Amino acid sequence: ILNVEQSPQSLHVQEGDSTNFTCSFPSSNFYALHWYRWETAKSPEALFVMTLNGDEKKKGRISATLNTKEGYSYLYIKGSQPEDSATYLCAFLSAGNMLTFGGGTRLMVKP
Amino acid sequence: ETGVTQTPRHLVMGMTNKKSLKCEQHLGHNAMYWYKQSAKKPLELMFVYSLEERVENNSVPSRFSPECPNSSHLFLHLHTLQPEDSALYLCASSQESFRTSDYEQYFGPGTRLTVT
């Protein structure tokens, strides 16, 4: 059983704050790391798929970094907006295995 | 607007019933997946179908039976379920098999299943 941990479990921030959260995964047999955003009553939506150590990806105000040697990825949101309120999921893919999701970080942005 | 649709959106069934969940993807993808989201648990991959293989999570009970008649349609047949099977069941698709790392998954809206 692969252990994928996300922290914190939930986070409340004010509109305009920048925030970040963590995904920890096994550092061996790394293949890919996915990030998804899941808004209430909607489908999970892919943000990033990261495959290379040191990768940095950006989409608007959201960015992510990847460290495969130590087994973590950070997701950053700059200038949070109420519409960023969602659960952010990471998922780890190791060679020969199926995608394993973390428990998610629930972000709530107060106007 | 998602390219992955699921029906029904809500389902209530008794433990002796037989029902099926349906998923259809309109994206031309080659891999389809069933996931289970139970309360306060991580999203759990149940089954994968891609061009040449089917993969299943060994912890999934046999009362769940997938069927993939073609690359656009995926079913999950349910029989003699237990109350603990109540959950949100999500379907997803991706351009290539999950074993290819670069491809993101596209999710449907899910079926909320309640077993009474």
The profile of the biggest β sheet of chain B is: 7 strands, mixed
Regions of chain B with pLDDT < 50 over 5+ consecutive residues? none
- If you average the pLDDT of chain A, what whole number results? 94
Q: How can the largest sheet of chain A be summarized?
A: 6 strands, mixed
Helix content of chain B: under 10%
Question: Residue share in helices of chain A?
Answer: under 10%
Task: State the low-pLDDT regions of chain A, or none.
Answer: none
Order of helices and strands of chain B: EEEEEEEEEEE
What is the arithmetic mean of pLDDT of chain B?
Answer: 91
Structural class of chain A: mainly beta
Largest interface: A-B, 23 and 24 residues
Measure the end-to-end span of chain B: 32 Å
Query: How many individual β-strands of chain A?
Result: 11
- Output the structural class of chain B: mainly beta
- Gyration radius of chain B, rounded: 13 Å
Shape of chain A: globular
Question: How many H/I helical runs of chain B?
Answer: 0
Q: Report the order of strands and helices of chain A.
A: EEEEEEEEEEE
Map the helices and strands:
The complex is a heterodimer of chains A (111) and B (116).
Chain A: E1 5-7, E2 10-14, E3 19-24, E4 30-38, E5 45-50, E6 56-59, E7 62-67, E8 72-77, E9 86-94, E10 100-101, E11 105-110
Parallel strand pairs in A: 2-11
Antiparallel strand pairs in A: 1-3, 3-8, 4-5, 4-9, 6-7, 7-8, 9-10, 9-11
Chain B: E1 4-7, E2 10-13, E3 18-25, E4 31-37, E5 44-49, E6 54-56, E7 64-70, E8 73-79, E9 87-94, E10 106-107, E11 111-115
Parallel strand pairs in B: 2-11
Antiparallel strand pairs in B: 1-3, 3-8, 4-5, 4-9, 5-6, 7-8, 9-10, 9-11
Structural overview:
The complex is a heterodimer of chains A (111) and B (116). In chain A, 0% of the residues lie in helices and 56% in strands. Chain A is built from no helices and eleven strands. Chain A has strands at residues 5-7, 10-14, 19-24, 30-38, 45-50, 56-59, 62-67, 72-77, 86-94, 100-101, 105-110. In chain A, strands 2, 4, 5, 9, 10 and 11 form a six-stranded mixed sheet that branches. A five-stranded antiparallel sheet of chain A has the order 1-3-8-7-6, with no helix packed on it. The mean pLDDT of chain A is 94. With 116 residues, chain B is mainly beta. Chain B has strands spanning 4-7, 10-13, 18-25, 31-37, 44-49, 54-56, 64-70, 73-79, 87-94, 106-107, 111-115. In chain B, the strands form two sheets. In chain B, strands 2, 4, 5, 6, 9, 10 and 11 form a seven-stranded mixed sheet that branches. The termini of chain B are far apart. The model of chain B has no long low-confidence stretch (mean pLDDT 91). The interface between A and B is medium-sized, with 23 and 24 residues.
